[in-house]
Amino acid sequence: MKKLNIAILTGGNVAEREISLQSGQTVYDNLDASKYNKFIIDLKGKDFLEMRSQTVLDKNDFSLKKDGSKTLFDLVFLMLHGHPAEDGCIQGYFDMLGIPCTGCDHFSSALTFNKQACKSFVAPYDISMAPSKLLRRGETINWDDLNQMELPVFVKPNKNGSSYGVSKVKQAEALPKSVELAFEYDDEIIVEGFLEGSE
Questions:
Q1: Structure-model confidence comparison of residues 160 and 76, the more confident one
Q2: CA–CA gap between residue 192 and residue 129 (Å, rounded)
Q3: Residue 41 has pLDDT above 80, yes or no
Q4: Distances, alpha carbon 34 to alpha carbons 3, 94, 102, 149, 183, in Å
Q5: Chain-centre distance of CA 134, in angstroms?
Q6: pLDDT tens sequence across 165-178
Q7: Rounded CA gap, 175 and 168, in Å?
Q8: How far apart are alpha carbons 35 and 32 in whole angstroms?
Q9: pTM
Q10: Cα 197 versus chain centre, distance
């Protein structure tokens, strides 16, 4: 039986890079080498770098060319955290190349990565959600409006993974600093009410 060529795409240019690299290595260590040819591909800057040989892939077809041979991939195992995988961008690229990848499609990723857009999308279906307010960098913040929200609230980047830039605010005077922190990770942030329950 022919072994499949699997590209484990990891790294990236976001705050979660180091976590992504660890996740990619975990997948590599646990994929059955008797069934798969495994390659760890690091998204570094705008290039895809095969880590073992330090060879840059051809972005025209996402192929690995070395020693006069060309390797095409049967599947991309997405281990990128945050942009450009969790927001669907990279899935669009692989869709155009006809290379399947793990996870959901680009639309579902883009929608769920944007927290406020996802909330707006599901709102007509009467799904219980915490109240929230969207803030955009450069726009005037209505602090009176935010201070009327019942505490505690969560302040978080609207389009970011993991917990980078997320704060639980229990006192109103801590809100400005939390907003400032969240804006370090995104140009949009949400201030969201607290829902008590099990996670």
A1: 76
A2: 9
A3: yes
A4: 7, 26, 20, 56, 46
A5: 19
A6: 999 999 999 999 99
A7: 9
A8: 6
A9: 0.78
A10: 25
